[in-house]
Amino acid sequence: MKVFLDANVLFSAADPSSATRRLLDAVARQAEAVTCPHAWEEARRNLERKRPAFVAGLAGLRASVAVTHAFAPPPPLDLPAFDVPILAGALGARCTHLWTSDRKHFGRYYGTEIGGVRIVSSVLLADALARHG
Fold first, then answer.
1. Integer angstrom CA distances of residue 75 from 36, 40, 91, 111, 115
2. DSSP string, 79-119
């Protein structure tokens, strides 16, 4: 498994006591965690603005999350322009999963596969990890 992390996942995982961080730790043990500079920077900016105490937690994730510049244009979907680089990064990095908590924009795609990448929530990812072993 190769799991692409959306900025909102990175934001939540920056809190070392969060459930998202525990799930990311499981991903790092059983699979490969990947993100793009766009998502990393968005998470950092949002943490600085909303939860500055967890900026160091994001920096601490760097050892377990690969940052890729790979990019493959996604098929036309009903996504806002700022979410297109997230899906394009997952496609370009040839990830098996795109993990996002963005129910508003990606929720309609949860559980579906786009270009070989399954869009998943935290619950769907936890189930996939359990099946993966």
1. 19, 23, 10, 17, 8
2. --GGGHHHHHHHHHTT-SEEE---HHHHGGGTT-EETTEEE
Q: Is 61 helix (H, G, I), strand (E, B) or coil?
A: helix
Measure Cα distances from 6 to 9, 35, 98, 131 in Å. 5, 7, 7, 22
One-letter amino acid identity for 116? G
Q: Show the 3-state SS of 20-54.
A: HHHHHHHHHHHCEEEECHHHHHHHHHHHHHHCHHH
Q: What is the pLDDT of residue 68?
A: 96
Residue percentage of the chain with pLDDT more than 90: 98
Indicate the pTM of the whole model: 0.96
Q: Report the distance separating Cα 64 and Cα 57, nearest Å.
A: 12
| Confidence band, pLDDT 50/70/90 cuts, at residue 132 | confident
| Secondary structure (3-state) at 19 | helix
Question: What structural domains and CATH numbers belong to the chain?
Answer: 2-132 (3.40.50.1010)
